[in-house]
TrEMBL record:
SMART domains assigned: HTH_ARSR (SM00418)
Name this polypeptide is given: Transcriptional regulator, ArsR family
Keywords: Arsenical resistance, DNA-binding, Transcription, Transcription regulation
InterPro entries found in the cross-reference section: ArsR-like_HTH, HTH_ArsR_DNA-bd_dom, HTH_MetalResp_TranReg, WH-like_DNA-bd_sf, WH_DNA-bd_sf
GO molecular-function terms, A-Z: DNA binding; DNA-binding transcription factor activity
Domain HTH arsR-type positions: 1-89
Keyword Repeat: no
Organism of this sequence: Shewanella woodyi (strain ATCC 51908 / MS32)
PROSITE patterns from the UniProt entry: HTH_ARSR_2
Species lineage: Bacteria, Pseudomonadati, Pseudomonadota, Gammaproteobacteria, Alteromonadales
GO BP, one annotated term: response to arsenic-containing substance
Length: 115
């Protein structure tokens, strides 16, 4: 991964918010991100696919659902950028986290949208 790859991937607000939400929660599925971002499934899935293609996210299929997490094999400098961005920009995803929390806590939240 190059710096250009990372910053291109994060140059879109939906992708940046998605990554920061995943950072906050460790793992999220498309339906959780749809609720948090108030976006359609095709839009969320498209942006997650771009983050996965850039190497920022890993996905795990569970039945018909796909769960995303930050790729722990990212270069250390990229992980630090993600961490610092997360720590310095909590207000960017504050309302998104509130909407996500309205779904309840995990694992109940996952049962309600991913079963």
């Amino acid at each position: 991964m190059t710096a250009l790859d990372l910053f291109k991937a994060l140059s879109d607000e939906t992708r940046l918010r998605s990554l920061l939400l995943i950072k906050a929660e460790q793992e999220l599925c498309v339906c959780e991100l749809m609720q948090a971002l108030e976006e359609s499934q095709p839009k969320v899935s498209r942006h997650l696919a771009q983050l996965r293609k850039a190497g920022l996210l890993l996905d795990k299929r569970q039945g018909q659902w796909v769960f995303y997490r930050i790729n722990p094999s990212l270069p250390i400098w990229a992980l630090k950028v993600v961490e610092e961005t997360f720590l310095a920009n909590g207000e960017l995803i504050e309302s998104n986290l509130t909407r996500l929390k309205q779904m309840g806590d995990r694992p109940d939240r996952v049962k309600s949208c991913c079963d």
